[in-house]
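Narrative summary of target 7.
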Amino acid sequence: MTASPLSTGGAGPVFENDVGTHYLAALLTGSAARGTRIGTVVRVGLQRAASGAPLDDVIVETDGAGGTTRLDLQVKRRMTFAASDREFPSVIGACWETLARPDFASGPGNRIGVEIAQFPEKVKAHYTRVPVWALSSADAVARSRRLWC
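Modeled conformation, tokenized:
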């Protein structure tokens, strides 16, 4: 049985519901949605931990010319992406676990993400560059050089 976002949502029910509503609206209108790369939204799953999804808050499937792709999201009210953040290790662990799943890794257009409601403005520019670098890097080695140099 799937759990209610009101009972399990660590981000708080209001923000998690807002995120879910965005993707459900895209599903109902047959349109693309933020964070998805191609196609239109054809399925939205909420609170999918009971189904074995490590990033369980919102799962979006799209269908387009390149086939079906998936976007798995964790929703948080706030997160600093620092070792001092008590939720950081579990979220990053869930990201790696999702990426390692054969059903997820086999889709070349599949993506993961963390939706954050309250984000420190002084670091926002730095964090928003990383996905752009990841998508524009030829491989993992090139991406690592950009991050650590």
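The chain is about 40% helix and 25% strand.
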